[in-house]
Amino acid sequence: MFLKGKTALITGSTSGIGLAYAKALAAEGAAVMINGFGDADAIETERKALAETSGAKAAYSPADMSRPDEIAAMVKACEEQLGGPDILISNAGVQFVSPIEEFPIEKWDQIISINLSAAFHAIRAAVPGMKARKWGRIINTASAHSLTASPFKSAYVSAKHGLAGLTKTVALETATFGITANCISPGYVWTPLVEKQIPDTMKARNMTREQVMNDVLLAGQPTKQFVTAEQVASMALWLCSDGAASTTGTNISMDGGWTA
Ligand code: NAD
């Protein structure tokens, strides 16, 4: 329970990797605010389970990460309802796969705003409190695509490369305040985000579903296995530990060897 007394705000945590972060942090005693879309009853059940696990409060924010005003209000609500946030994990993300000449402009704008700008707005709102408390952990879920490109994912690759740059800049600005800022960059994790991109990838690459699974999703990962959301969450826990106090401005790959 090394996070007892700390508060974590995790964006995009009603599903996939974000939910795994919330469960891992709550298991160490953190009060958590979850965020994201989904079925209201399922979210409320999850919120109650997180409070029970942590023995602390848990709250939910329905803020839309494409809306700067809602992001600022979410950080304020966290401060008022739970305290903190001491730990901010910007994790909400969406994906779209299309050849660039057909890439819908509104999809470009949406992906940049949710995957990149949302992290800027959340960090901007959370840093003053972290500086005042002289402790903070800023973690951004980037991707192997923050280091490597992939055809037909122009917006996502651009957003994730940008997120890595934002993280390094924030690390330098906050280093003397007991705050660290790091990216975790997973390879493929089997979540709804990955499942949803399969039909468009089949179309863009003229492949069968099986070819996409083996020749696109798993081909780049020498382990030939999906990374698990729990593995990613365990890295976030470590980044919150005392042992990680000097680890800032890094982009940590958890990609089964992909970027090697
Ligand atoms: P997911 O689809 O399971 O979860 C995405 C979460 O973001 C959900 O909770 C969803 O409700 C939320 N979300 C989406 N749009 C939102 C918005 N406008 N406002 C608020 N919340 C919103 O996907 P995941 O795979 O768990 O992805 C989580 C993060 O991990 C993303 O940033 C993604 O880019 C990154 N990532 C995923 C993989 C992978 O293979 N799954 C690999 C590398 C990085």
UniProtKB/TrEMBL annotation:
Keywords from the UniProt entry: Oxidoreductase
Any one GO molecular-function label of the UniProt entry: 3-hydroxybutyrate dehydrogenase activity
Domain of life: Bacteria
Pfam families, per database record: adh_short_C2
Enzyme class, UniProt record, top EC level: oxidoreductase
EC number: 1.1.1.30
GO biological process, one term: monocarboxylic acid metabolic process
Gene3D superfamilies, per the entry: NAD(P)-binding Rossmann-like Domain
Sequence similarity: Belongs to the short-chain dehydrogenases/reductases (SDR) family.
Xref: PANTHER family: 3-OXOACYL-(ACYL-CARRIER-PROTEIN) REDUCTASE, 3-OXOACYL-[ACYL-CARRIER-PROTEIN] REDUCTASE FABG
Protein name stated in the entry: 3-hydroxybutyrate dehydrogenase
Lineage: Bacteria, Pseudomonadati, Pseudomonadota, Alphaproteobacteria, Sphingomonadales
